[in-house]
Amino acid sequence: MEAVYKRCSALTEVNTSFCPGCSHGLAFKIIAEIAEELEIQRKLVWATPIGCTTFSFGYHSFSTFGSPHGRAAATATGFKRRSPKTPLILYQGDGDAAAIGLGETLHAAARGENFTVIMANNQVYGMTGGQMAPTTLIGQKTTTTPKGRSMEKAGNPFRLAEQIAVLDAPKYVTRQALHSPKHVLAAKAAIKKALQIQMGEGGYSYIELLTACPTNWKIDPRNIKEYMEKYVIPQFPLGDLKG
Question: Which domains, and CATH codes, for the chain?
Answer without folding.
Answer: 24-242 (3.40.50.970)
